Amino acid sequence: MAVSNHERIGRGLALLNQGLYPYVKREMQKVYGEGWLTIATSYMSDDETFKPESEDILGNNISVLLTLIIKQWDQVFSKKLGYIERALVAELIETSKTWAHQSRFLTEDTYRAIDTIARLLKAISAREVNVAQQQKQEVLAILTPNQTEKAPFATEKLAEIIKQQSFQDSSLLRRALTHRSYVHENPQEGEHNERLEFLGDALLTFLSGEYLYRRHPEKGEDQLTRRRSALVDEKQLAKFAIEVGLNFRMRLGKGATLEGGFQNPNLLSSTFEAVIAAYYLDNNYDIEAVRAVVEPLFDSVPESIVEFRSNVDSKNRFQEWVQRNITQTPPKYVTVQVGGSSHAPEFIAKVFVGDKQYGEGKGRSKRDAEKAAAEDALARLEKSGLASE
Q1: Looking at 27, 115, 201, 370, which residue is catalytic?
Q2: Rounded Cα gap, residues 89 and 229, in angstroms
Q3: Which is deepest, 111, 159, 340, 384, by most CB within 10 Å?
């Protein structure tokens, strides 16, 4: 019987609980002695706290253990763990909540959750880390069928490059990894990575477009545009950044770190773009050097994932853009029949956000016309450079 993503994450959380509990108990006892359990159980629900077997319950409640680490961070856990580990704990709290609500997990999200579990187990030197790493590889094999050789090659190549000794000018990489929040807290650092991010975005847009143009000679402009968006969107670039180890190399301010910056897709994707630009500059503006790095990464993305992302319903994609950039009110479609016969009518649809028209399209049904209007709106946003906002 196939194992669901929900089950995989459940197994990972159980493994984390197994490795984390002895560590938490030991560190708490160092500070509070035998009184540690009283403090620990204060984070349980009322129903659990007053049961005689409360320590057993604590030993099987990963959410309470993770919350305990955050609540007792300054007093206990910051002595041996750093901001990176705190960010891992914060992310796993959200994962455990989502899992408890029986929510569905994409395979990509499952991989990330198991990877985070493995990182935390490694940080506390728990022996369970080996099992977690094995679980991670199992999910990776599902996520990238028939591509398990390509992905490690691609990521290892770039991971090696981002080591400072691989840069002729190490200050370029340093700047690429530096977020504005770090410069704000450390003004002596000078420039942050936003200018490099701008250049990296342009490089990746060009290289991904050229890559798809060569790879899919049968596809038209609209299909290529959607595929390019899927290949270098925020989520995919963030995934690349994590795979090559940029997530914990980013130089963030303390506030951004505490807010989960090491797992923030926007910061991850932006840093990846900046590193690509830094590598381009370090190689004296040699586009071929950059192509040699990013094309194996493009190859490592399963065709099925690019196809799925590029075919997500255009109405949903446009609505997501509107809600992300303008208003939570969904776009309004005005659709009328403009011709055709009773058996083959023709409709025209216009899509509005507030009083402003964003797109127009035709179709043999209202649904097709509205879809065409949304596609027109997305195409206009793409041409104006607003689609990725």
Answers
A1: 201
A2: 32
A3: 111
Residue with tokens 């595929």: 227
pLDDT at 276: 95
Q: Are 107 and 136 in contact (CB under 8 A)?
A: no
Longest distance between any two alpha carbons in the chain, whole Å: 84
State yes or no: is 273 an active-site residue: yes
CATH class, 314-383 region: alpha beta
Sign of the dihedral defined by the CA atoms of residues 84, 89, 95, 97, in that order: negative
Listed in sequence order, the residues at least 6 apart from 98 whose beta carbon sits closer than 8 Å to its beta carbon are 105
Structural domain boundaries in the chain: 5-143, 150-310, 314-383
Is residue 342 very low, low, confident or very high in pLDDT (cuts 50, 70, 90)?
Answer: low
Ranges 4-18, 43-57, 232-246, 343-357, most confident:
4-18
Q: Which CATH number applies to 150-310: 3.30.70.100, 3.30.70.640, 2.60.40.10, 1.10.1520.10?
A: 1.10.1520.10
Catalytic site residue from 273, 282, 370, 376: 273
CA distances from 282 to 81, 212, 245 (A): 34, 26, 20
How far apart (Å, rounded) are the C-alpha atoms in residues 362 and 346? 7
CB 261 within 8 A of CB 177: no
pLDDT at 52 over 50: no
Domains 150-310 and 314-383 are alike in CATH topology: no
Q: Known catalytic residue: 295?
A: no
Alpha-carbon gap, residue 200 to 270, rounded angstroms:
9
Contacts of 293 (CB under 8 A, 6+ apart): 157, 158, 161, 276, 279
Q: pTM for this one?
A: 0.51
- pLDDT of 149 reads 42
Share the mean pLDDT of the chain: 81
Other beta carbons within 10 Å of 217: 6
> Among residues 34, 40, 29, 38, which one has the least CA distance to residue 63?
40
pLDDT interval class at 48 (50, 70, 90): very low
pLDDT at residue 51, as a whole number: 46
Burial of 276 (0-12, 13-18, 19+ CB in 10 A): buried
pLDDT tens profile 175-204: 999 999 999 888 888 899 999 999 999 999
Mean pLDDT of all residues in 328-354? 80
